[in-house]
Amino acid sequence: MFLIFCADIFRLKYVTSMQGYKFAAETLEMFLLSTVDAALALQNALVAAESLSLGTVPVGSIRNDPTAVADELGLPQGVYAVAGLAIGYEREGVRRGLKPRLPEQVTVHNETYSTTNLDKCLNEYDQTMISRRTYDGRRVSLAGEPEKHGMEYGWCEHTARRCTTCQRR
């Protein structure tokens, strides 16, 4: 099963108009609120499915072509796909265990934000992802830049490429 979780501002605009008011909530707060609501619904579905011993995979790439997704699903203006969730039975021997997450030292902060050990933790995580071959066949290419053969391609390189539209400095 593949579920797509959508943020829905259309419904809020509709209700506001239906009640005779002018919608005035075109704000970052409304965008975040609707997006977070969709993400929380996805998380609840994921937890429920996994409690039934089903495998799940959140799919953020559903946002790669929002217009095509909106067209396919017939979404009105103000409704957008936040993420997908694949749910099913795992095939024996296919999964290489749960994907490791970034270490808590770089994601959980006490009292103040800390970059202590950031480089060390990112390097260790990168090596874990490289050794697991997590990004084999999933490399992000940069336009106009030839592939670097022999370069270790881990989380840091993958993430940096996903966050850029320009060449390296």
TrEMBL record:
Keywords: Flavoprotein, FMN, Oxidoreductase
Residue ranges annotated for the Nitroreductase domain, each copy included: 20-89
Pfam families: Nitroreductase
InterPro entries referenced in this protein's UniProt entry, alphabetically: Flavin_OxRdtase_Frp, Nitroreductase, Nitroreductase-like
Keyword Oxidoreductase part of the UniProt annotation: yes
Coiled coil segments of this chain: none
Entry's family note: Belongs to the flavin oxidoreductase frp family.
Name recorded for this polypeptide: Nitroreductase family protein
Organism listed in the record: Neobacillus pocheonensis
Source organism phylogeny: Bacteria, Bacillati, Bacillota, Bacilli, Bacillales
